[in-house]
Amino acid sequence: MAERVHLRLEQTLPELEEMGRVGLFSPEEIRKIKKKREAFEYKLRRNLKRKEDFLKYIEYEMNLLSLISKRRDRLLCESKKKEIDIKIAKRISKLFNAVISRFPDDQKLRLDQIQFCKKMKWYDNINVLHTQMLKVHSKVPNLWVMAAKYEFEESKSPENARKLLQRGVLINSKAKILWREYFRMELMYTDLIRKRREVLQLQKMEDPDLEEDDVVLNGKIPNVVFDKAIEEIDDDVEFALSFIQICLEFDFTAKHIEHIFEKVLEKFPDKEETLDALAKQPLLHIEDKIKKGKEQGIKKKVTLSRINEEIFSKYEEAVKTLSTEKMWNLYIDFVLNLIKSSKENRRSLLQDKVVKIMERAASYEQLSAIYYSEWIELLFERGDEGEGLSISLEAARKFNTVDLWFKTLTFHIQLLHPTKQIYKYLLEALNTVPEKDSVILWKLGVEWLSALDPEKLIEFFETGIKKPKEISVPLKEMYLEATAIQSGIEATRKLYKKFKKLGPISHHIVKKMILIENGQMNSSIDLLRQYYEDGIQEFGATNIDIWLDYMKLELEHKDGNSANYATVLWRAKKMLQPEYVGDFQTRLTEFMSGSHSCNDIEIEA
User: Fold this and answer.
1) What is the full DSSP assignment across 444-481?
2) Residue 561 near residue 554, CB atoms below 8 Å
3) What is the mean pLDDT of each run of 10 residues along the chain (605 residues)?
4) pTM of the entire structure?
5) Reduced 3-state DSSP string for 479-543
């Protein structure tokens, strides 16, 4: 082992000598570099090779190379680059090869090596590295894209880029990103040829590749790629339509977009996404249409109005052809988005239009719950309160969702409808929506009854606290708080005792009662201690907060006792489950260091 290490180090001696000769490093620095390399070389000679050792060696050599570059700039020294810088770079390359040969499946190692070669401008090496990487990681579409992009943009070789992408889609025929990038690359190549042809024409020069360029310029190659893509991925209309967005990156793709629409309509005639895209087709290249209109003396708003009318007409045909909930939703979405971007004077007209569309969709039983909610909001915004209330109640009963019931109850409360009627609707809602989702309705009922009918509120609470804990726990908290406000502390204490008898009490209930008790003018420490003891009995094995708050009480309450503090601390360590003790000790230390001197109270280690 030692002989091989020394042989390696001897090979680096010429570059170290040159470093000293040109003044990049002092003799002491060179000695340290040699010693550091020796340590790394010994690590690489172990029987068990570790990736980390290679990476640290590579990192060290890269940092050394960077330092040399900085010192050259400072010293204005460019001599002996081949003997120093290139030698180090080649060593780094060899280290990359060594670690990759041992860990061939590590994709990041290969990418790091490629990045290093780009930095060194070793372009020939990059092509080889891409080939090696794709042999091992042929099922990773992004790597094919990366390699093709390099060939097209850096190596200026569209042909190599095309070959890579063709090979990539052959191996990964279901990889959407590869098909999209293959399509984009062909459009980029077409754009390149177009611009070159324009330059040649301006200079009145002949195109040496005239026949080949004409094949590209006729636009058939991207269309062939698209056709093959939707043949391989034949059940995804959104994938097919996504090629339109790629076309919009270029200014010559009108025929390609037309081809895409033709194929999509042919392949997916009964898909809502197809009809939606066809309806929105007039929006493509809208800026060009506005510009052309201005040249003809047509105002922008007139052009936009005509475009929107064309789109509305197409959507009308779409909902006649395919009257599904999804199709109506897409139509409604378009108008709602239009409303958001419209000025005030046009917004009112569009609101009227979308309300009528929603009415028609509802009449066909094709309006979803979320759009019923939008419909109701629009009706109230327009001042149609009567119709809004009617539709909201109809929707709530139709879908039985918490959101719709909450909306209709809120509207009735805001419009000060009779208490008896609202209460009836509230009970209807609670009896129809899934119980696990109904907490928000219970809370709404409490807030409403608190202000209007305290007696009814008690009845409401008594019903709610018998429900499952998802409902009963938050209601018990609210019940305690409401009782404290309306009936005083004694009634609240009595209610708390009732909750204890009903069964296990949660930490939320205990915390709420402690909060209420602490709010009294002269809070009783004996009662507060009892609440903490209740909490400890129920959930003291897993709840750190109850112990810390209990100890804080003994330190901060005017009737507190530091001896009790030590007792509670001892009990906490005994009762808490082992996995909670460490966190408890950490938080206790933080609390003591922030609030009290450790000299005042002895904390056990």
Assistant:
1) HHHHHHHHH-HHHHHHHHHHHTTS-HHHHHHHHHHHHH
2) yes
3) 80 90 92 92 87 94 94 90 93 94 93 94 92 94 96 92 96 96 94 80 57 63 95 94 95 92 95 96 88 85 90 96 96 94 85 95 94 93 90 94 94 90 94 92 93 88 90 92 92 93 87 91 90 92 93 89 89 92 89 53 33
4) 0.76
5) HHHHHHHHHCHHHHHHHHHHHHHHCCCCHHHHHHHHHHHHCCCCCCHHHHHHHHHHHHHHHCCCC
